[in-house]
Design a protein that fits this description.
Layout (H helix, E strand, L loop, with lengths): L12 E6 L3 H12 L4 E7 L2 H11 L3 E4 L8 H11 L4 E6 L4 H8 L5 E4 L3 H13 L4 E2 L20 E4 L3 E2 L5 E2 L2 E4 L3 H17 L3 E6 L1 H13 L4 H6 L3 E5 H4 L5 H4 L2 H9 L4 E3 L1
Parallel strand pairs: 1-2, 1-3, 3-4, 4-5, 5-6, 11-12, 11-13
Antiparallel strand pairs: 7-10, 8-9
């Protein structure tokens, strides 16, 4: 494990770099020298060592590759989330698979950057993740495939606003999503809802009847126990036509839904 400054002293953001490709460390060091208040506190090349160093160092930000010896980056991220919960995670990988990227983000990571885009995206991605937002590389948005059956071809662009700060000081954020068509909408919402429910959180879905049916079909096809989530008040589906004219979160986020989430120390998502 190596430790170094990314230029200057008294850096306020402590960064752990996890990658088994030596030249990448030099590239990141050069990039961070051009940005303010960044300090590389370590560089490791092994997934298991990354978990150990994250627990020991408690970095503010971890730049994490996926293809690592001993333990892959996605599994390392899952372990790190438990051992260093305050550390932000930004995946940086050359893997362009939408499925791999979404699995990586489902660990609770704040972003995913394709390495070939890192020269222009790494610093903005780091800033977004450190603010509590999410960043997805342009190398993934929309996909590059022409196969109509490939979900990556129907992906969507995701834009993240600056985070809000609640009364208790906890940082939250809102997402704005743009979809190419109805199929992309169902895929995008389905991924968000699947990840939310699998993490034990609650979600309120506001959509048309046809969209709700398609989303439900997709969730069940993916093996999500929607019936259990409904029974536990973690999945609430509302019709957009009925709800929008008089929609108030205080009415629709029922006491049971909020209680179900808070008892588990989880969040309520709205889609």
């Amino acid at each position: 494990m190596e430790t170094e400054k990314a230029g200057g002293t008294n850096k306020s953001v402590r960064v752990l770099v996890v990658d088994d490709y030596g030249p990448w460390h030099g590239f990141v060091s050069t990039m961070l020298r051009n940005g303010p208040e960044r300090e590389i506190i370590g560089h490791v090349s092994d997934g298991l060592e990354a978990v150990e160093q994250a627990q020991q160092l408690q970095p503010d930000l971890i730049l994490l590759d996926i293809g690592l010896p001993t333990l892959n980056g996605i599994e390392a991220a899952r372990r790190i989330r438990h051992l260093s919960p305050k550390s932000k995670i930004l995946f940086v990988s050359e893997n362009r698979s939408a499925d791999i990227a979404w699995e990586a983000l489902s660990t609770g990571a704040g972003g995913y950057v394709v390495k070939s885009n890192a020269a222009r995206e790494l610093l903005p991605a780091m800033n977004a993740v450190l603010r509590g937002g999410r960043f997805v590389s342009a190398g993934l948005a929309g996909g590059n495939t022409t196969d109509p059956n490939d979900e990556q071809a129907h992906d969507h662009l995701r834009l993240e606003t600056l985070p809000d700060r609640e009364a208790d000081g906890e940082v939250t954020h809102h997402e704005v999503n743009f979809y190419l068509d109805d199929e992309a909408f169902v895929i995008g919402f389905g991924r968000f809802i699947e990840s939310t429910l699998r993490n034990g959180n609650a979600v309120v879905v506001l959509a048309t009847k046809s969209h709700r049916a398609a989303i439900l079909q997709r969730l069940r096809r993916k093996g999500v126990d929607v019936d259990a989530a409904v029974e536990e008040k973690r999945y609430v589906a509302l019709d957009v036509a009925d709800s929008l004219p008089t929609f108030r979160f205080a009415e629709h986020l029922t006491a049971e839904t909020v209680k179900s989430a808070t008892e588990r120390n989880h969040r309520v998502g709205v889609g």
